[in-house]
Amino acid sequence: MSISTTEKPAPNGKPAGVTAKVVGLAVAGAVGGFLFGFDSSVVNGAVDAMKEEFLMSEAVTGFAVAVALIGCAVGAYLAGKVADRYGRIPAMKLGAVLFLVSSIGTGLAFGVWDLVFWRFVGGLGIGLASVIAPAYISEISPRQVRGRLASLQQLAITTGIFAALLCDAVLASSAGGAGQQFWFGIEAWRWMFIACAVPAAVYGWTAFRLPESPHFLVMKGKDDAARTVFDTVMPDDDTERHIREIRQTIEDDRLSSRKGSLKGPILGLQAVMWIGIILSVLQQFVGINVIFYYSTTLWKAVGFQEQDSLAISVATSVTNILVTLVAIALVDRIGRRPILLVGSIGMALSLGVMALAFGSAHGTGNEISLQGAWGPVALVAANVFVVSFGASWGPLVWVLLGEIFPSRIRARALGLAAAAQWVANFAITLSFPVMAAGSLPLTYAMYALFAAASFFFVKFKVPETNGMSLEQAETLFVPKGSFPTEVRS
Fold first, then answer.
1. Strands 367-369 and 362-364: what pairing?
2. pLDDT at 352 over 80
3. How many CB atoms are closer than 10 A to CB 174?
4. Domain residues for 371?
5. What pTM did the predictor assign?
């Protein structure tokens, strides 16, 4: 993957180069995505040991895994308010603190409700990071490579997932099982959570070294500070034009009836909010996090040993990273819509195959087995699904969420859309153990139907935003006549 430094010329006639500084800032901003992926997926290798340790039922196990997602929804909703009032960087710092204390608390949990509480706190941190990272990256990125830089959020998430699953596998293997004692007599599954403290500390240190978003600075009337940031990250671009565009968009929002509000005529929200919410919900309703939260348990259920199941989960996470790199390479070349549409087709077909494969399974609940070639078929289909998602809906939904909302409401709108995403994730994560115990074929068939629905939603409701400034892109999602003036160049 490469990011060209000789993109299209800027409006002032200078070449709009992409500096190492702006790439570095985007990478640093995406560290929150790494924590997001690590903290949300580390539970994969610990599920069965947690269940045995605290004698949890299927429903309680599902809740213990999914409760972090309630925290994510709350954190995402609050992130917009924190980011708009105090700035993007203070929100990052708060997220780092929440990550740190929750990792220690979860690892040392002494009971079910103690475990649940600390996972909820960790979810608050994930929710904050899930909103702030795409907003910050979009606001400091040149338009020509904004898609690629914004996709670093998903690359960081997938890398975090890989690191978490690799950590799980190494700890479980070294201890002789996730439930076995390891360092200082503490079980391996507890060390899986404690390990989250390391990236949390790195995230906090990074947040103290980043400049504030220039969009936020202009919104607060700090044009000189914004000018300094723009001159640093985009020295060959037209800084004054960027500031004029942001000011004009803010003024348009003030003059319009919206006045920076999320409220609108469609069930109480603006149309653009519903597009963001539906994109977020569909991203989760295809069932991707079933693979990353429960894959070890799933592959054990169909006949693989614990070590093999963990190895398969790690291999799947590596695949996820590689295909995210493909998406980053293509998003600014061929656009958002074509990639999303192809990804929807791949997800629908692979999920359909998984439904067929598990339709041939023998046994019920956790005591199932796939006969003959159906085991390898299910494994291949699961990885095709990960490839299809990772190269399309994984990174590109975050790109679009960073582009489509008006500047004045971007942080709050992203917060609401991300909250909807986490609620959807919670619903899928909580329901999977119970649904899987009832019928895995019907479960995967349902996910396939949502994947098919995602194709039609993009085809008919999502316009292309490739190559546009944030201010230009957001006008595509606003009903004609909502703005009293055009965005000026």
1. antiparallel
2. yes
3. 13
4. 20-475
5. 0.65
